[in-house]
Amino acid sequence: MHFQQKIDQLFTEQQRDWKQLRSSIKQFDQIKVKEFNWGNELKVDVQFNPSRIESLSAKVDKSSIEERPCFLCEKNRPTVQSGIPFLDKYIILLNPFPILRNHLTIALHSHVPQRIRRKTGDMLTLAELLPEYIIFYNGPKCGASAPDHFHLQAGLKSPILMAGENELRSCLVIESTSKQEVEERFEDVYQYLQSRQPDEEEPLFNLITFVENNRYLLHIFPRKAHRPRQFYEEGKRQLLISPGAIDMAGLIITAREEDFNKIRKEEIEDIYSQVSMTII
Ligand SMILES: [Zn+2]
């Protein structure tokens, strides 16, 4: 059976057996999205997704992480949640709080910190197996709500998720027919970004990879901040937005209706300028 068909089958079985997943997918079908345009095909979508409140406001400091049971470790996962093995070291799970259609979480079996170096090959292999999907990675300070357990995510392709560089934020694009070449060029970028942020355990970035016309594409979104100023404001000035790869690509996730209603173009521009790092 083709790998994508196995995933489709997992969706069928899990929606049959797992009530929470069934209702979250149903809710996702009715989700509200607002579109903002800057002309010249430059656009950003804002999604209102109340199920993301915990993930968006997750405390990811060391002590909060150590105190909570890790939701990606097998012993803590719901018993009804099943998955598909990938490369003998990962399990592909269905995300019960989807922000994309067919939202997948790909968790490493072992509980090791979120670090992507030397694992981009795994991302590219998965992108090859799932040609209708994008595969994405959020760094430990760039949107990952489990920075202590290595994981990737995936969802069905859409044009906004595959948008490269634009005027709102930077995106470095690596494209090649050779997986090895993409990995080598990523390593060069990694070393450069590390030299810009020598005090970080991993330079701040988000990654999106996919295969299109038999070519591997890797989009790197370098970051200079975890969350924008508005995240920490109080009352009316607060905007609970904690950008990950999907937000950086151009689909901003809000979990509170007030944020969805009040966000304007100026704030979108301001948020990107605070979290995106310019590469000259
Ligand atoms: Zn874990």
Report on this model:
The structure is a single chain. The protein is an alpha+beta fold and 280 residues long. It has one domain: ATP adenylyltransferase (HIT family, subunit A, 2-Layer Sandwich), CATH 3.30.428. It is 32% helix and 22% strand. The chain is built from ten helices and eleven strands. Strands 3-4-5-7-6-9-10-8 form an eight-stranded antiparallel beta sheet. Helix 1 packs across helix 2 (19-28) and helix 5 packs across helix 6 (179-196). The chain starts with a helix and ends in a 5-residue tail after the last helix. The mean pLDDT is 95. Bound molecules: zinc ion. Zinc ion binds next to loops.
Features:
binds zinc ion; 32% helix; 280 residues; 11 strands; HIT family, subunit A; alpha+beta; 8-stranded antiparallel β-sheet
Heterogens: zinc ion
Distance between the termini: 46 Å
Computed Rg: 18 Å
Number of domains: 1
Q: What's this model, at a glance?
A:
By secondary structure, the protein is α+β, with helices and mostly antiparallel strands. Helices cover about 30% and strands about 20% of the residues.
